[in-house]
# Entry
Amino acid sequence: TFSQDTLKTLNLYDNANGYNNAAGLLADQNHFPGIDMVRFGENISIIQKRVTFENRSILEVYEKAIEIFRDYYQYEEIKGADRKKIEKIPEAAFREAIANGLIHRIWDVESQIRVLMFEDRIEVVSPGGITKEEYLSGKLSVLRNRNLANVFYRLGFVEIFGTGIMRIRQLYEKSLRKPEFEVSENAIQIVLPVWESNLDLTEDEKMIYGILSKNRLKSMG
# Structure
């Protein structure tokens, strides 16, 4: 239960204006868009599952998106007496992508954040709002949803403002296939490929493999 003093501390309420949009986004029920998640089969013509989370607290939207992610990209492997969780895509990278989408998006546009799930990758597309240079470098001169970002930071969903892209890249440091980032005036897209181990390949072989992987992503999309 939040007191008014707590809400004021979090910059969600003031005596002159009452609750602000950040408070509305965090409320159990609201009028804001959320996340639209689609699971595809062999191509985009085959939709295996679609679910939309909207008009509810974005904290719940965030957690629901992670639950769906776990269903498709995590499994357990049993070897003898040991049980090991296998992540086809690093959960930490997906969490960063979703948190970034919620924090940096434009909320006065009705568009949903779209999460497109394929066998070999996830694409997270959110309405834009910052420049490509700011987003990719992590040096945000103006944080669009500062109050919202502050709540995510206090809850431990993000570490330091503006470092999400760097963390995602670090998580894929030992993977052959790397994440991709596309930033335009209207949208931010993060592509998280399925992890593939960095085998003993030469630098030339790694470069060729990277080109072939990109072409495979385009042909399947």
Observations:
- The longest strand covers residues 47-53.
- Residues 203-220 form the longest helix (18 residues).
